[in-house]
Amino acid sequence: MSHWDIDGCTVDGMKAAKPTDSPEDRRRRKARRTRDALADAACDLILSQGTAATTVEAIAERADVTRRTFSRHFAGKEDAALDFVRRDGDRINALLRARPAHEPPLTAYRRAVRAWLTDPDDPPWQLRPRMRRLLALIDSEPALFGAYQRIRVDAQEESIRIIAARLGTDGALDVRPAAVVDAAAGVLVAALRVWARQGDRNPGAADLAALVERAYDALTSEAAAAVADSTTEE
């Protein structure tokens, strides 16, 4: 069974405490539950009344914590509502690190994304109820869009470091890691945008994993065509 709450925006991944759990383990779980409650409250409020009408105080009250507790976890309401994006970016990077060393960087990134999208035990946040609405809202809410971009860039910077390590190069000096990650992550963002905007009307966009695969196929086929075309130029 999936670990996320099918009625809300957030996850419920906290396992019951074990007799051998240390106080630090219990503190981490409590902090995670608080963070999830805040993220869930931010998501619910922003979807129901918009970003401008949602206050940090209202989010904290809905999560039954203080304003000060909110500030310990998030810089702002947009970051709270999009905490799922950050967590899934971390998951993609963890899967990328685990890919076999012999895989080309673009292939490794694509397969990491595929594993993330098709994990039956830990589905990506986009597949949770109402997340399509939140993803579509990002394009029309400047504050949400800005937060989304910051979170996405942070994840991509880590991806660049991972790819640079795979290539045995310096990502600050070698353009290849950034080129691969920007292209691969851009394909994912493009597919997510189509899925959010057209999913209810376009049957071909209903299956997010299949849509992402088609988007990566489009990238590789266009790249191959561009290479073939360049070799015929005089």
Structure description:
The chain has 234 residues and is mainly alpha-helical. 68% of the residues lie in helices and 0% in strands. It contains 10 helices and no strands. The protein has helices at residues 23-49, 56-62, 67-73, 77-81, 83-97, 105-117, 131-140, 142-167, 175-198, 208-232. It starts with 22 loop residues before the first helix and ends with a helix. Keywords: DNA-binding, Transcription, Transcription regulation. This is TetR family transcriptional regulator. GO terms for molecular function: DNA-binding transcription factor activity; transcription cis-regulatory region binding. Residues 32-92 form the HTH tetR-type domain. It holds the Pfam family TetR_C_14.
Keyword list:
234 residues; mainly alpha; globular; single chain
Mean pLDDT: 85
Alpha-carbon distance between the termini?
A: 59 Å
Beta content: under 5%
Helix content: 55-70%
Number of helices in the DSSP assignment? 10
Shape: globular
User: pLDDT below 50 for ≥5 consecutive residues: which ranges?
Assistant: 1-7, 11-17
Largest sheet: none
Rg result = 20 Å
- H/E element sequence: HHHHHHHHHH
Q: Would you spell out the secondary-structure blueprint of this structure?
A:
Elements lengths: L22 H27 L6 H7 L4 H7 L3 H5 L1 H15 L7 H13 L13 H10 L1 H26 L7 H24 L9 H25 L2
Short description:
Keywords: DNA-binding, Transcription, Transcription regulation. This protein has 234 residues and is mainly alpha-helical.
